């Protein structure tokens, strides 16, 4: 009989301690043990991107990681990133542009988009539509046809770039 | 789609990992980035008794210059490969290839060593290692040995690592002056496994191709070198005629299998087209010539 | 960025491109999908599935599995046969149709690879899967029926031993004399093949059944479009009281027609909850989704078109053979798609002579049924390819030949040779609008210029006519318990706000958003004051729900009329209080006003009074502020829409790869309620159609195994490969309703593959090549070009 193992993970800023079976994925741990159902399972093989969360600040597939592997690490899900306001600009743009329909893929897309925009900001780069599409290459959306998602991310990138220009000027 | 039960142990050193493997009475697997292992577990295609998590072994990290080699630790994430200035300066083939590897989130966990140890002929890094003439560092309980990439891959998902040993680093020779490198692949969708991929490294001195290493993904059970096509290039200028000869020679180098989704003939056609396009790009030094 | 403009015919809310109120919740990860629902004492189900496409079922040994940790029950076919009556996927208006009766789990035979055979109910999904590995089943493999043509052969093994052959349904449509029409005419012909697709909703199917034996009450949380349909089915097949069956569709992660069919697992989950008297959940994983969600398409259509030297069409003949699953799906059958193919071919054009044959053949593959745009993409591609071939034969431009042959303005109402009646279409307006939108002459000039440089671009267009707003003519007349009407209950709360419970459902397309807009406008209140509730049979009136592009047209009209009713009630009460004539009052921005707009009392004041001080109302005036309205269209059997797509592609003739450069749509769905949502319905639909055109195909091996049943192998179109899509509208409201809206959910899918087919063939034509099979994979294009 395989024993559950103790883990301590900082999830959305709060330190949580649980015993988990080694076979439990980070996604199932978040959903089942912590009730963080904003992390969605669409394929469980890392293809669809619906389960993507931030691990120590970088997007990873929660279905391709074991909960025990995350011991001692920081995990941020769509719920936490919403509460903290980090996703606010993207969420507002997605809402205005209707860049989601069923919403199942959306949490993963937001996490990926946020990381992409962070990299653009760091590089002082205004991304092209093609590069936005490229950043989304691991995220399935079956409802929107992607264009609205690209539009929404582009609009946040533009505000971000304009804000940076403003700072430079000041 | 839930994995079969297994035990899990996280280790802090290579020695501890090797000991844990040796001590396991059933089947053990080393877990690095897990981006190929986890899908296999979730699908119950693989069901080990023990996972040995080597993901936090500091000694397996790091990208360093060592003499005339660039040493890349096995735990180097694909995202780190993509971002590394050392790799961009000395092995830009890997930088180019990393951009084709799956998707951003996968690149944040997937590792150099994991990809090579899996030895999937459809993935990019095995072909790159052959094109670069790299050495792979394998550590077992009896010590560390180095194996040339050309001797490392044995068959589909098979290589020379003995059970219980692990890949700890790769060593890429620093490029000679005149070295040109290019990686390209053709896939149905961005980030999909390539239908055909090509890692190419040429050394061009003056107008003459001095050496050529061409390694293809997805055309055989291992990453495939193309010796006839390479020979067709060496000792002559890299011009349209040489490229035509090389692409013509490819039929003698490769014999891809029939695949339900994609026929051997189509795959050969793509390999020829890709070779022609990569070589044409390499005709101009802007595409991949190394600083002397 | 493509701007969405408000409809020129709009009002305060109707016609406005407003964001969806419900989307904020989803954006914050606060969606609640079926798998997110956790109930006390809930158990999890997993299924052992047949590895064979066709096999006799022998002994099943579950003893070891039943004893495994966490396992509560292992169930087989006989357990369910005792509590569930079989279902048969036929409709009486499809004369002569037959299909084998189905039970949740099979008793003696399996008929597709992936069919559930044994069910394990355990504490966790993982433990249920562990137990599956300990079950022994003796299968005796039988020869599988796989190939579409071979399935009809005399020597073909029969899937249903009680049937004479594998043909489930045959029909012929005949109008005029095609034979005469073809005499002396030019004719062009196609032999087109369309691959099998599947919906690949991001959220897989999920069902959580909870039976309470105390009240004999069954509650089912289910990822479905049609909760009322399942309420009826569960009650009838398990012998329960319909009033005690509650089906709740919480947030649904995509459906596209896939989540309104009966699946064996759903019936098994309900049955298991009845047997175990505990909540039982089943969520399909992605492998199971590919092996059990309905598939669609899979047609081979041979057709020919007769055309006069003047470029005027004379006749079309069609032979459509479609391979479906081993039986016909329930309750909508597997014949509707083929039926719509043979009825829609040629629909936009003036034709009197038409003949079409349809044969629906059983195969040992996943069951097939309605998926987004049912039949339309096939009919459109066949028709529009024939039209392009005719244009080519006669040296006419594709725009010109269409202009010459469309049904014209003075012909409405128009009846097609297949019997469809069009109230009014806008074919010529859409055509000329597309011509301008694409800047067609410039595209042709650019194409010629690039061709000289060895760059092969193709331009294709495709016209569609789409079936929306169905009446009972669709299913009801065939005996199916599928409602064509919708119900809406509107309530003014004591605080003067509005709650709206309606029978159309939400899967992200914005049903709730448009109903909110319609009610707010109809009533004269702020949209924020309207809360819309859907997807629960216990709290909403029964109705048809959301499918076949009916939500906006039928549900929207229901909501509009309900709001009129509630407005009349409010004004009656207000008139009594204000001692005014109701006819001289109005409601604007949440207040009862005089006819000139001067506010007399707020709805809050009115609500407070009616609920808390009804003693102040005159004796004859009811305080009721809840109204119900039901509506079903009574005029035309369907409200047909139309539109046209344009596609610009570039073919790499060395690799066979196609780059999609741009896609245009000009569409007419009648009154546009929310252009933002309409445009996104179209874009999403276009991309699903482009998936069919280039990527998606369920490939089967010789023994009936699905070879690419995973997200890495079944190629769904993704961001990098899809083009930007430009959309414009023409509005021809239906006069059957006050609202004037028709459906739009399928318009994107209906013609995008046809336009792409024409575009690729336009690129290939100078090279003497053509493709006639979808998806147009690099392999098929290389073969067409004789490169390999």
**What is the helix tally of chain C?**
19
Q: How many strand elements of chain C?
A: 29
Shape field of chain B: globular
For this structure, the quaternary state is heterotrimer
Shape type of chain C: globular
Low-confidence stretches of chain B: none
DSSP summary, beta strand count of chain B: 14
Please give the largest β-sheet of chain C. Answer: 7 strands, mixed
> Strand order within the widest sheet of chain C?
3-5-1-12-9-10-11
Low-confidence stretches of chain C: none
CATH class of the largest domain in chain C: Alpha Beta
Distance between the termini of chain B: 53 Å
Domain count of chain B, please report it.
Answer: 3
Structural class of chain B: alpha+beta
CATH architecture of the largest domain in chain C: 2-Layer Sandwich
In CATH, the topology of the largest domain in chain B is named: Uridine Diphospho-n-acetylenolpyruvylglucosamine Reductase, domain 3
Q: How many domain modules of chain C?
A: 3
Radius of gyration of chain B (CA) equals 19 Å
Structural class of chain C: alpha+beta
The largest inter-chain interface, given as chain pair and residues per side, is: A-C, 59 and 55 residues
CATH class label of the largest domain in chain B: Alpha Beta
Tags for this model:
heterotrimer; A: 170 residues; alpha+beta; Ubiquitin-like (UB roll); DNA polymerase, domain 1; 2 domains; five-stranded mixed β-sheet; 6 helices; 5 strands; 15% strand; B: 292 residues; Uridine Diphospho-n-acetylenolpyruvylglucosamine Reductase, domain 2; Uridine Diphospho-n-acetylenolpyruvylglucosamine Reductase, domain 3; Enolase-like, domain 1; 3 domains; five-stranded antiparallel β-sheet; four-stranded antiparallel β-sheet; 12 helices; 14 strands; 35% helix; globular; metal-binding (chain A); 2Fe2S_fd_BS (chain A); oxidoreductase (chain A)
Describe this structure in words.
The complex is a heterotrimer of chains A (about 170), B (about 290) and C (about 800). Chain A has about 170 residues and is α+β, with helices and mostly antiparallel strands. Chain A is about 40% helix and about 15% strand. Chain A has helices spanning about 25-35, 80-85, 90-95, 105-125, 130-135, 145-170, and strands at about 5-10, 15-20, 50-55, 60, 75. By secondary structure, chain B is an alpha+beta fold. In chain B, the strands form 4 sheets. Chain B has a 5-stranded antiparallel β-sheet with strand order 4-5-10-6-7. In chain C, strands 3-5-1-12-9-10-11 form a 7-stranded mixed β-sheet. A 6-stranded mixed β-sheet of chain C has the order 7-15-14-13-8-29. In chain C, helix 10 (about 375-395) packs across helix 11 (about 400-405), helix 12 crosses helix 13 (about 440-450) and helix 17 (about 675-695) crosses helix 18. The model of chain C has no long low-confidence stretch (mean pLDDT about 95). Chains in contact: A-B, A-C, B-C. At the A-C interface, helix 2, helix 3, helix 4, helix 5 and helix 6 of A face helix 1 and helix 17 of C. Chain B: Keywords: FAD, Flavoprotein, Oxidoreductase. Chain B: This is Carbon-monoxide dehydrogenase medium subunit. Chain B: InterPro entries: CO_DH_flav_C (IPR005107), CO_DH_flav_C_dom_sf (IPR036683), Diverse_Substr_Oxidored (IPR051312), FAD-bd_PCMH (IPR016166), FAD-bd_PCMH-like_sf (IPR036318), FAD-bd_PCMH_sub1 (IPR016167), FAD-bd_PCMH_sub2 (IPR016169), Mopterin_DH_FAD-bd (IPR002346). Chain B: Its EC number is 1.2.7.4.
């Amino acid at each position: 009989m395989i024993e559950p193992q103790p883990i301590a993970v900082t999830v959305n800023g709060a330190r949580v301690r649980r015993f988990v079976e080694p076979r439990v994925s980070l996604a199932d741990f978040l959903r089942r043990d912590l009730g963080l159902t904003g992390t969605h399972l669409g394929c469980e093989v890392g293809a669809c991107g619906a389960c993507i969360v931030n691990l120590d600040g970088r997007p990873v597939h929660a279905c391709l990681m074991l909960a025990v592997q995350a011991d001692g690490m920081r995990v941020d899900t769509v719920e936490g990133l919403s509460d903290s306001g980090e996703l606010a600009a993207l969420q507002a743009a997605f809402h205005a542009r209707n860049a989601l329909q069923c919403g199942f893929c959306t949490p993963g897309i937001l996490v990926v988009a946020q990381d992409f925009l962070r990299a653009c900001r760091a590089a002082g780069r205004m991304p092209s539509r093609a590069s936005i599409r490229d950043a989304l290459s691991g995220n399935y959306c079956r409802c929107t046809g992607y264009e609205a998602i690209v539009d929404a991310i582009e609009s946040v990138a533009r505000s971000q770039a304009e804000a940076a220009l403003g700072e430079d000027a000041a | 789609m839930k994995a079969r039960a297994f035990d899990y142990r996280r280790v802090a050193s290579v020695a501890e990992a090797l000991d844990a493997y040796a001590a396991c009475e059933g089947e053990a697997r080393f877990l690095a980035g897990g981006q190929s292992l986890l899908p296999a577990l979730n699908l119950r295609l693989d069901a080990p008794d023990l996972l040995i998590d080597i993901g936090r072994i500091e000694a397996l990290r790091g990208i360093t210059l060592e003499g005339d080699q660039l040493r890349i630790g096995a735990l180097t994430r694909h995202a780190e490969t993509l971002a590394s200035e050392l790799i961009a300066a000395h092995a830009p083939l890997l930088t180019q290839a990393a951009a084709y590897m799956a998707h951003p989130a996968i690149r944040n966990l997937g590792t150099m060593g994991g990809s090579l140890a899996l030895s999937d002929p459809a993935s990019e890094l095995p072909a790159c290692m052959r094109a670069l003439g790299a050495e792979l560092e394998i550590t077992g309980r009896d010590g560390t040995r180095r194996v040339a990439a050309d001797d490392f891959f044995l068959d589909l998902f098979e290589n020379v690592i003995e059970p219980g040993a692990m890949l700890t680093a790769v060593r890429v020779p620093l490029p000679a002056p005149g070295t040109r490198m290019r990686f390209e692949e053709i896939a149905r969708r961005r980030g999909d496994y390539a239908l055909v991929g090509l890692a190419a490294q040429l050394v061009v001195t003056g107008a003459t191709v001095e050496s050529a290493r061409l390694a293809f993904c997805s055309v055989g059970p291992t990453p495939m070198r193309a010796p006839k096509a390479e020979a067709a290039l060496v000792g002559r200028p890299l011009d349209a005629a040489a490229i035509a000869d090389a692409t013509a020679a490819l039929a003698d180098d490769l014999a891809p299998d029939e695949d339900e989704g994609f026929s051997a003939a189509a795959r050969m056609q793509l390999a020829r087209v890709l070779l022609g396009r990569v070589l044409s790009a390499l005709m101009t030094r802007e595409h991949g010539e190394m600083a002397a | 960025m493509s701007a969405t403009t408000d409809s020129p015919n709009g009002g305060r809310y109707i016609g406005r491109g407003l964001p969806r109120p419900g989307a904020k919740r989803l954006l914050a990860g606060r969606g609640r999908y079926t798998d997110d629902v956790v109930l006390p004492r809930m158990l999890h189900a997993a299924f052992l599935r047949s590895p064979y496409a066709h096999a006799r079922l022998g002994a099943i040994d579950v003893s070891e599995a039943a004893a495994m940790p966490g396992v509560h029950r292992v169930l087989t076919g006989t357990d369910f046969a005792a509590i569930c009556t079989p279902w048969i996927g036929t409709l009486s208006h499809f004369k002569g149709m037959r299909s084998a009766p189905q039970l949740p789990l099979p008793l003696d035979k399996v008929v597709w690879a992936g069919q559930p055979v044994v069910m394990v109910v355990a504490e966790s999904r993982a433990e249920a899967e562990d137990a599956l590995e300990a079950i022994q089943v003796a299968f005796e493999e039988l020869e599988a029926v796989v190939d579409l043509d071979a399935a009809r052969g005399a020597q073909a093994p029969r899937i249903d031993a009680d049937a004479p052959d594998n043909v489930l349904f045959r029909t012929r449509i005949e109008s005029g004399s095609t034979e005469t029409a073809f005499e002396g005419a030019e004719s062009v012909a196609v032999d087109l093949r369309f691959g099998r697709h599947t919906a690949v909703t991001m959220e897989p199917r999920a069902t959580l059944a909870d039976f309470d034996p105390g009240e004999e009450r069954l509650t089912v949380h289910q990822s479905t479009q049609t909760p009322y349909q399942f309420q009826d089915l569960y009650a009838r097949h398990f012998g329960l009281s319909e009033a005690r069956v509650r089906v709740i569709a919480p947030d649904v992660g995509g459906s596209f027609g896939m989540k309104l069919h009966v699946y064996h697992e759903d019936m098994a989950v309900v049955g298991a909850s009845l047997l175990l008297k505990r909540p039982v959940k089943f969520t399909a994983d992605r492998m199971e989704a590919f092996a059990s969600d309905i598939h669609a398409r899979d047609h081979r259509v041979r057709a020919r078109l007769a055309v006069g030297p003047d470029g005027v069409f004379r006749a079309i003949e069609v032979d459509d053979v479609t391979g479906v699953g081993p039986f016909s799906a329930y309750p909508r059958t597997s014949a509707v798609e083929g039926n719509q193919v043979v009825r829609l071919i040629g629909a936009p054009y003036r034709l009197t002579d038409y003949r079409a044959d349809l044969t629906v053949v059983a195969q040992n593959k996943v069951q097939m049924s309605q998926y987004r745009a049912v039949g339309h993409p096939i009919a459109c591609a066949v028709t529009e390819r024939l039209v392009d071939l005719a244009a080519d034969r006669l040296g006419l431009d594709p725009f010109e030949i269409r202009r010459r042959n469309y049904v014209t303005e003075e012909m409405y109402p128009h009846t097609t040779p297949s019997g469809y009646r069009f109230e009014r279409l806008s074919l010529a307006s859409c055509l000329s609008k597309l011509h301008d939108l694409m800047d067609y002459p410039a595209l042709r000039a650019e194409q010629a210029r690039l061709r000289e440089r060895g760059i092969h671009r193709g331009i294709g267009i495709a016209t569609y006519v789409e079936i929306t707003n169905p009446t009972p003519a669709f299913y009801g007349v065939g005996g199916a318990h599928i409602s064509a009407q919708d119900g809406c209950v509107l309530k003014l709360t004591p605080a003067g706000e509005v709650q709206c419970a309606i029978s159309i459902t939400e899967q992200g397309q914005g049903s709730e958003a448009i109903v909110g807009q319609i009610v707010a406008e109809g009533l004269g209140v702020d949209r924020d004051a309207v809360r819309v509730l859907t997807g629960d049979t216990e709290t909403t009136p029964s109705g048809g729900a959301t499918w076949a592009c009916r939500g906006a047209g039928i549900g929207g009209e229901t909501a509009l009329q309900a709001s009129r009713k509630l407005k009349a009630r409010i004004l009656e009460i207000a008139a009594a209080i204000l001692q005014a004539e109701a006819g001289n009052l109005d409601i604007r921005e949440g207040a009862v006003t005089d006819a000139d707009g001067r506010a007399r009392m707020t709805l809050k004041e009115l609500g407070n009074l009616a609920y808390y001080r009804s003693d102040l109302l005159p004796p004859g005036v009811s305080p009721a502020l809840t109204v119900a309205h039901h509506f079903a269209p009574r005029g035309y059997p369907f409200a047909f829409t139309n539109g046209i797509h344009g596609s610009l592609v570039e073919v790499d003739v060395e690799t066979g790869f196609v780059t999609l450069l741009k896609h245009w749509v000009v569409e007419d769905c009648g009154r546009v309620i929310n252009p933002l949502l309409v445009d996104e319905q179209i874009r999403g639909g276009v991309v699903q159609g482009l998936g069919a055109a280039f990527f998606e195909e369920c490939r089967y091996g010789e023994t009936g195994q699905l070879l690419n049943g995973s997200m890495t192998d079944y190629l769904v179109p993704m961001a990098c490969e899809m083009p930007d899509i430009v959309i414009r509208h023409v509005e021809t409201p239906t006069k059957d309703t006050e609202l004037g809206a028709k459906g739009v959910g399928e318009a994107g899918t209906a013609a995008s593959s046809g336009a792409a087919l024409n575009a690729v063939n336009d690129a290939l034509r100078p090279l003497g090549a053509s493709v006639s099979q979808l998806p147009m994979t690099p392999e098929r294009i290389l073969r067409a070009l004789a490169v390999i």
